[in-house]
Amino acid sequence: xxxxxxxxxxxxxxxxxxxxxxxxxxxxxxxxxxxxxxxxxxxxxxxxxxxxxxxxxxxxxxxxxxxxxxxxxxxxxxxxxxxxxxxxxxxxxxxxxxxxxxxxxxxxxxxxxxxxxxxxxxxxxxxxxxxxxxxxxxxxxxxxxxxxxxxxxxxxxxxxxxxxxxxxxxxxxxxxxxxxxxxxxxxxxxxxxxxxxxxxxxxxxxxxxxxxxxxxxxxxxxxxxxxxxxxxxxxxxxxxxxxxxxxxxxxxxxxxxxxxxxxxxxxxxxxxxxxxxxxxxxxxxxxxxxxxxxxxxxxxxxxxxxxxxxxxxxxxxxxxxxxxxxxxxxxxxxxxxxxxxxxxxxxxxxxxxxxxxxxxxxxxxxxxxxxxxxxxxxxxxxxxxxxxxxxxxxxxxxxxxxxxxxxxxxxxxxxxxxxxxxxx
Length: 424
Known about the structure:
With 424 residues, this protein is of the alpha+beta class. The chain has helices at 3-10, 12-15, 22-31, 46-54, 86-94, 100-103, 106-120, 129-145, 153-165, 177-199, 208-215, 225-256, 258-266, 271-281, 313-316, 352-369; strands at 34-37, 40-43, 58-59, 126-128, 217-218, 221-222, 287-292, 296-298, 301-303, 308-312, 370-371, 395-397, 400-401. It has one domain (3-66, 77-399): CATH 1.10.630.10. It contains 16 helices and 13 strands. A hairpin with a 2-residue loop joins strand 8 and strand 9 (301-303). The relative contact order is 0.20. Residues 410-424 have low confidence and may be disordered.
């Protein structure tokens, strides 16, 4: 690999915080698959990323990589790092809480939450899409599903943000012991919090998802307490951070393409297609990894068992071999969505349905209600999350907020905003 590509690869976490990282990502895609260093293979085009994500000869357990160092990152027992059959058993039990039928009651509640959040900024001349819409929406939604009292939402949100800053996609970047140490402590605090929450006597529901996790049963097995705790911590982190990034990236894209924003304003039914195009065009989850557990060949390149495969999902989603006009933002694409923003295969994002509901509601309401929205003139600052991409803040100026259509009273109940005080 040439020296300039080597520099691009090692600077990936920094590059993903730039305004326009995709020209540099395209260079890595055009060269892939290739050996970046001993034991590390970069995969950045759509076909090969999709193949690896589905290949049973690869593992999600990074501790199986030859370059893995336990002193830098201890082995993980999170669901996203497990392989079959353990992953299959746990996911089968957990997935019952995320079926379309299970999530359907959330649609009117999330619509009402978005409406309320926009009402709160209606008399200002600008608002922060991240801090005043995306973050409270995503955090309240996931916490309410897990029975977390409203007074504790910000506490869990802070731990989640700290945890995400320490999720270095080895072997990229320089691992800051202070950052990774803080992330480990934040992850531990999430587990302790949910352990206390489970121990607290409660007569009513603990939240629909947590109730489902506690009562999930299949083939004579149930989730252990440690498995329930791990899934809760994962859902708070993944379900919060990536949804915030999705909404932030989407609002930026819509404002930079006013014709697409007008399309959505004229036809709110386009909102689900907008979500898919945002996921493809500016993916929240940019990088994931797999480990080869057997020798295999990819695009003529021999990959040895133990090699770490670094998959650049954001680059794959701009692959001209998979998408026409890949660098254009078009909410009315003719081809069916086939992006990899939620990964693919056995580890396809468990909370993708919930993220879609939230982003659909946010984009539709933003387009319909916010009058003459304008992007900030200042440079947008992106979060220091090494494998994720999303604005740290996104202050949008506007001329007004239109009144929302009336929402049924049942839709506003129990959505977790400013209700129950903390007891944990």
